[in-house]
């Protein structure tokens, strides 16, 4: 039997297509010699499910509207939302170390104490928060002693220190320091100044 060139090309193309289709996604194990496969069961049980798609193939198979996310949404999904900054603790004292931690805590100070510190421990994240410490002399009807603000930027726990100084003797009596975060009161601590 002689084939025309056109028939030979069609025959070759059909054979190649059948070979490709037979290999596509099928993994059949050959039946052991001498044991014919039972109709419908062995063929189904020996055919393995296709392997799960990898991220590259899933992107190629899914419709474009479900694969591509806007850059902002993809970035937001990958980056957790920042934890808002909060004041965890306020400590008063008469000395601090290099890490701004109070080393001599107290709420009673001598009238000749030159500097009193307020150490504010914060937690959370912020790029532009403002802490303020307002010091008042309560015996003088809430007379303002000092009001100091500091901008803070932090990605986690931090300590901010405020101080008031008096080169002379402090008036004896009750005082209070109030801490506010972005204009909202968040902590306060009363203290007393007396003679030694």
Strand order of the largest sheet: 2-8-7-4-5
Mean pLDDT over the full residue set: 75
Low-confidence stretches: 26-67
What radius of gyration results from the CA coordinates? 39 Å
Strand content: 35-45%
Shape summary: rod-shaped
SS content category: alpha+beta
Order of helices and strands: HHHHHEEEEEEEE
Question: How many E strands?
Answer: 8
Task: Give the second-level CATH assignment, the architecture of the domain at 86-194.
Answer: Sandwich
Helix content: 10-25%
Helix count, DSSP H or I runs of 4 or more residues: 5
CATH topology name of the domain at 86-194, in short, is Immunoglobulin-like
Main sheet summary: 5 strands, mixed
Secondary structure topology:
Elements: H1 5-23, H2 42-46, H3 55-61, H4 64-67, H5 71-78, E1 86-93, E2 108-110, E3 115-123, E4 126-137, E5 143-154, E6 158-165, E7 173-181, E8 184-194
Parallel strand pairs: 2-8
Antiparallel strand pairs: 1-3, 3-6, 4-5, 4-7, 7-8
Mind explaining what this structure looks like?
The chain is an alpha+beta fold and 196 residues long. The protein has a domain at 86-194: Immunoglobulin-like, CATH 2.60.40.2550. The chain is 22% helix and 37% strand. It has five helices and eight strands. It has a five-stranded mixed β-sheet, with no helix packed on it. Strands 1-3-6 form a three-stranded antiparallel β-sheet, with no helix packed on it. A hairpin with a 2-residue loop joins β7 and β8 (184-194). The longest helix has 19 residues, at 5-23. The radius of gyration is 39 Å and the shape is rod-shaped. The protein starts with a helix and ends with a strand.
């Amino acid at each position: 039997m002689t084939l025309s060139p056109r028939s030979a090309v069609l025959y070759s193309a059909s054979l190649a297509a059948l070979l490709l289709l037979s290999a596509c996604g099928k993994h059949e194990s050959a039946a052991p010699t001498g044991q014919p496969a039972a109709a419908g069961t062995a063929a189904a049980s020996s055919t393995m499910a296709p392997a799960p798609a990898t991220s590259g193939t899933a992107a190629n198979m899914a419709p474009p509207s479900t694969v591509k996310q806007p850059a902002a949404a993809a970035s937001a999904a990958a980056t957790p939302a920042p934890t808002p900054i909060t004041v965890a603790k306020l400590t008063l004292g008469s000395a601090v170390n290099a890490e701004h931690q109070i080393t001599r805590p107290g709420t009673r100070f001598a009238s000749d104490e030159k500097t009193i510190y307020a150490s504010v421990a914060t937690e959370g994240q912020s790029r532009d928060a403002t802490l303020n410490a307002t010091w008042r002399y309560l015996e003088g009807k809430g007379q303002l002693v000092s009001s100091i603000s500091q901008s803070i930027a932090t990605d986690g726990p931090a300590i901010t220190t405020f101080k008031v100084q008096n080169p002379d003797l402090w008036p004896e009596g009750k005082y209070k320091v109030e801490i506010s975060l972005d204009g909202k009161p968040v902590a306060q601590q009363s203290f007393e100044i007396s003679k030694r």
